[in-house]
Structure formats: structure tokens, C-alpha cells
Amino acid sequence: MVDQLNDWTWLDALTAKFDQDASAVVLEQPEHQVRSALDSLF
After folding, report:
1. How far is 16 from 20, CA to CA, in rounded Å?
2. 18 secondary structure, DSSP code
3. Cα(18)–Cα(21) distance, rounded to whole angstroms?
4. Does the model's pTM come out above 0.70?
5. Domain of residue 4, residue span
6. For the chain, how many structural domains are there in total?
7. C-alpha–C-alpha distance, residues 19 and 29, integer Å
8. How far is the C-alpha of 10 from the C-alpha of 27, rounded, in Å?
9. How many alpha carbons fall within 13 Å on the CB side of residue 35?
């Protein structure tokens, strides 16, 4: 049972189910947002 908890092969099978568009969205890095009102609080 412990070996099953440490075995990450299920993740390989899961990622194969996502199409290329979904993978691209997950890997996308959003641009930095300037929020001066929020920055002034900290």
C-alpha cells in the first residue's frame, strides 16, 4: 500500500488526457499587474 502512495505513474496517465490547448493555458505565465492602491497597503 505504501508503494502505491509513492508511485506517481498515475500522473503520466492523467496528463495524457489533456489536449494541447489545455496544457498551453496551464503553462501560460500572466503578465505582471501594477496595482498601486494595493501596494500602498503594504
Report:
1. 10
2. S
3. 8
4. no
5. 1-26
6. 1
7. 18
8. 20
9. 7
Q: Which amino acid is at 40?
A: S
Question: Rg (Cα) of the chain, in Å, rounded?
Answer: 19
Angstrom distances, CA of residue 23 to CA of 1, 8, 16, 42: 31, 19, 10, 35
Nearest to 26 by CA among 39, 15, 11, 38: 15
Q: Is the dihedral of CA 33, 37, 41, 42 positive or negative?
A: positive
User: In this structure, is residue 21 part of a structural domain?
Assistant: yes
Interval 6-20: pLDDT, tens? 788 877 777 667 788
Determine, yes or no, domain membership for 19.
Answer: yes
Does residue 40 sit within a domain? no
